[in-house]
Amino acid sequence: MIWLYIYSLFPDFHTCSIREYTPHFPFSPFLPIKLVNREQIPVIPGRILRLPYSHLYHKSRFMENVLNTAHKAIPGNPSVATTSTIQLSKSSENLRVLSKEDWKFWIENGYIIIKQAVPREQATRLANYLWEFENKDPYDPNTWYTPTQHMKMAELTNTGMVEIYQHQYQWDNRQYPRIHQAFADIWGMEELWVTIDRANLNFPIRPGHEYKGFIHWDYDPETKPQNVQGVLALADQTDENMGGFQCIPELFRTYDTWKLTQPADRDHFKPDITGFTPTKVKMEAGDLLIFHSAQPHGIRANNSKDKVRIAQYISMMPANERNEEMRQWRIRSWKEKVAPDGYAFPGDPLNREKQQPVATLTELGEKLLGLRKW
Length: 374
Prior knowledge:
Layout lengths: L2 E3 L12 H4 L9 E4 L5 E4 L6 E3 L47 H10 L1 E4 L5 H14 L27 E2 L5 H7 L2 H11 L4 E3 L4 E4 L25 E6 L8 E6 L1 H10 L20 E2 L7 E5 L4 E6 L6 E5 L2 E3 L5 H13 L26 H7 L5
Helix pairs in contact: 3-4
């Protein structure tokens, strides 16, 4: 059962409590919430009300039938909402995949690795296809370094983003039950949508193909985003020098005090990490990394001789099934191979995916896309 705590989370304005919301209802001390059975219940301002989320009928007219256009000039994935009106789970009860120790690590550090979230051979299958898709030979470094397209998000230039979003092998990973169950643990619910996201072939730095490792946020932590992000390792990335994911758990834990030491005009997406040492997160093929969107993170420079970091980006958040425009866009993206349109997503100018068949979805995959309702 999924419970909604109305005091701290109200569907119209997810950043406001009922006490803050009451001026919109000056003629009544009660705030009516309409349920699926059309009954209305009075909510006394400042009190806490608990009701099953599945019974909630009322949704804001401001939140329905709109695409997420917030990420045309800032980072973030527009295939789902920027933040959820549902809070991330705070309970370690009824875990499906995570252990109690995993949960404790997640809460304290803002990230967690789920070992063998998909079988190694399944991860390797997509890795092999990415080489083919990019027309590169994994055994010939002379084929690796070709000109890359312009990225509005400059720090991603030369980091190896592969503009592929709807291939069958990507969907096989997205709809793999253990992947879904891991995100269900983090959210405390199974009714989720998966992000429409791409893959990565991150090559060793060479002259003419340089980039700097970086730390950033895709979502302004000052907004307290209710969102997570994820990376599935498609090849082993245990070498300290071979790039891959890095983050700063210490800054995640101390953000509220750290920000008091920063100038008022600081960049809310690129922190000054003076005094912090980024953590290299080591993964093996098939491992899934989930991290909180308030976690400062980025790509580590690949200073290895010949090792390539290969990954697929996967995340999930609560399904927004009443947002019909968003749901239809997601279905069209799957059917017609339409890439997300955003600051970090240039898409493939060659439209190579258009030549591929539409990915076959399981019943779970249909729900994760929005083709079938939960």
